[in-house]
Specification:
- This protein has 197 residues and is an alpha/beta fold.
- It has a single domain (2-189), classed as Rossmann fold, CATH 3.40.50.880.
- It is 24% helix and 36% strand.
- The protein has 5 helices and 12 strands.
- A 7-stranded mixed β-sheet has the order 2-1-3-4-12-11-10.
- It is globular.
- It starts with a strand and ends in an 8-residue tail after the last helix.
- The structure holds glutamine.
- Glutamine is lined by residues 45-48, 78-79, 82, 105-106, 135-136.
- Glutamine binds at residues 45-48, 78-79, 82, 105-106, 135-136.
Length: 197
Amino acid sequence: MRIGVLALQGDFDRHAKALARCGVEAVEVRKPAELADVDGLIIPGGESTTLLKLMDAWGFVPALERFHAEGRPIFGTCAGLILLARDVENPRQFSLDFIDVGVERNAYGRQRESFEAHGSASLDGRATPVEMVFIRAPRIRRVGAGVETLARHGDEAVLARQGSVLVATFHPELTDDPTVHEYFCSMVRKPRAGAAA
Ligand code: GLN
C-alpha cells in the first residue's frame, strides 16, 4: 500500500514522516499523473488559496475528481479540509465539494491563531485520546447529514468523515500521536463499499 501526499505547498514532509511511523510508504505527489500510483492521498495544511492556484496550474482538479469517484480515500488537514469542503467562507472560494461540510477560514481570530488541545475521538466505535494542534485553523460551521463527526473540540466538529473522505481542522502530523494517521491508513486498507457516495 502506498499513500500519496500532495507536495505542492505546505507541510507535506511531516505527513510523510507520520505515515512512515505507521509503517506505510509515502509518495510525494507533484503532478496529476502520479496519482495513478497511490491508494490514498493526503492534502496537507498550508495556504488554501495558494494551493488552489497551484492545483489549477497543474490540472489537479479533474484528476482529483476521478480519484475520488473511484473511491480512493483522501484525507485533508486544515487547508486540505478547506479544499475538500462543500462551502467555504471568509472569503468564499472554489472547493472540491467531496465532503458535505461548510467551513470558515481563519475562524479562531488573532488571539488564538495557534493552540494545542487534547480531545477524544470516536474511531471505529472506540473512544481514543487525540492530540490536536491548531494553526490559523478553519472551523467547521455546518456538518451535513451524511457526515460522521469523529472528534470535537468544545462542541464543534474538528475531525469528520464522509465515505472515503476524512478531514481535520487541526494538524495531527505535528504531534507524535499517530492515532489519526493510523485511522486514515485503515481507511485505505479497507475501503468501505460505495465509499465515494
Ligand atoms: N489559514 C489557512 C487557509 O485558510 C489554513 C492554515 C493551515 O493549513 N494551517 O488556507
